[in-house]
Amino acid sequence: MNLTLKVWRQRNRNSEGKIVEYQVKDISPEMSFLEMLDVLNEDLLHKGDEPVAFDHDCREGICGSCDLFINGRAHGPEKGTTTCQLHMRKFSDGDTITIEPWRANAFPVNRDLSVDRSAFDRIIQAGGYVSVNTGGVPDGNEIPIPKNIADQAFEAATCISCGACVAACKNASAMLFVSAKISQLALLPQGQVERKTRVENMVAQMDKEGFGACTNIGQCAAECPVGISLENIALMNREFINAKATSNNLA
Length: 251
What we know:
Blueprint: E1 3-9, E2 18-24, H1 33-46, E3 69-70, E4 73-74, E5 96-100, E6 109-111, E7 114-115, H2 118-125, H3 147-157, H4 164-168, H5 175-186, H6 195-209, H7 219-223, H8 231-245
Parallel strand pairs: 1-5
Antiparallel strand pairs: 1-2, 3-4, 3-5, 6-7
Helix pairs in contact: 2-6, 3-5, 5-6, 5-8, 6-8
């Protein structure tokens, strides 16, 4: 396939960016989207031009770092698919493809298509874990957990922290991501000791990072590549209300 690419180029977060048009030729339909970008970068390097910066790691749909807007959709046109697992057979010969980074104040652009998602890391550091202060660690097999609860916790734990929910939301809300991380631990016995402080601290950090409020549009869940449910947001809201009702933190 021969394709026209309109790619966002930006030297750093303090400089202005712009769309630059490129042509790529002889692209195999079996290539992944990132492999196609590798071909583009090889062509640019051969011409002595700067390659396009973009984030990637595992290329197996697990790490969540392949965060791209493709023709106005997070991770591209195929539902339930990360950018690295999107194949070029989803496009046609002669297509024009517009490629942009995530758009959110909390995700500043590092360079070109690469964005800084460390805000997610700081939210996790605020409470998205079971700390060593909660006592000894019992054998996991000795704790009876109903299957439906275990399934809910597992489904929440599949969140890969890619940020598609933020990019797709008109308010740049991180509620789906944060609620998945809170639900994962709130549903399990290991997470009960820090249940109240966890939701308070993580929500406070989310607000501090500058993410927007949730208005229940549902675009986050629609674009999530692993299918995180909106039910997690409802669970997080209940956790937050219960925590605030009995909290010593009156802020």
